[in-house]
Amino acid sequence: MQTYEYKVIPAPSKGRKAPGLKKPEDRFSRTLEELMNEMAVEGWEYQRADVLPSEERQGLTSSHTVYRSVLVFRRGVIGEEIKENALENPTGDPEIKGEKSDSYDEELTSDNPKSEGDDTTKSGD
Predict the structure, then answer these.
(1) Is the pLDDT of residue 86 over 80?
(2) How many CA atoms lie within 13 A of 26 on its CB side?
(3) pLDDT higher at 78 or 67
(4) CA-CA distance, 95 to 99, in Å (whole number)?
(5) CA 121 – CA 81 distance, rounded (Å)
(6) Residue 107 confidence (pLDDT) above 90
(7) DSSP state letters, 46-100
(8) CA–CA dist 112, 81 (Å, integer)
(9) Separation of first and last alpha carbons in the chain
(10) What is the pLDDT of residues 3-62, one digit of tens each?
(11) Where is the composition biased (Basic and acidic residues) (predicted)?
C-alpha cells in the first residue's frame, strides 16, 4: 500500500506583476501556475483547492470565522522513511523529516542482514 505525506499551503490572494500580463486574472493565473510548478519540482502532486473555516479572535472576548483558501499537495513516502520517522518522532507528528542517510543505499545493495550492533534506535529521551 502506498503511503503519502501531505502539504497544505495558502492559496495566493492576488497575482504578481509580470511583463505582458495586463489583466488581474492573467496575473493571478500566472502566479498560481508558478507556485504549482515550484511544488511539482519538489515532488509534490497537486490534489485540490479548498476553502476552510478558521476561527480567529476579534478583540478581547469575541471571535469570528474567516474562510481561507488553501492548496493541497501530496507525495509518496518510501517505506524506510516512515520507519525512520517513527523512530525519530514517537509522538506521531505526520511530517516526514530528514534525508535518507548514506547507509540507506548500502543497506539496499547489501546482501547481509543487519547485525544486532547496527541498531540505530534511540533510547528514551
Answers:
(1) no
(2) 7
(3) 67
(4) 13
(5) 14
(6) no
(7) EEEEEEEEEEEEETTTEEEEEEEEEEEEEEEE-HHHHHHHHHH-TT--S---SPP
(8) 21
(9) 31
(10) 999 999 999 998 888 888 889 899 999 999 999 999 999 999 999 999 999 999 988 899
(11) 94-103, 113-125
CA distances from 6 to 31, 45, 66, 77, 105 (A): 21, 9, 23, 10, 25
Q: Is 113 left (phi over 0), alpha (psi -120 to 50) or beta?
A: beta
Q: Measured between alpha carbons, how far is 6 from 82 in angstroms, rounded to an integer?
A: 14
Cell numbers found for residue 96: 516526514
Cell numbers for 57: 479572535
Q: Is the dihedral of CA 32, 37, 40, 42 positive or negative?
A: negative
For the record, the C-alpha cell of 71 comes out as 492548496
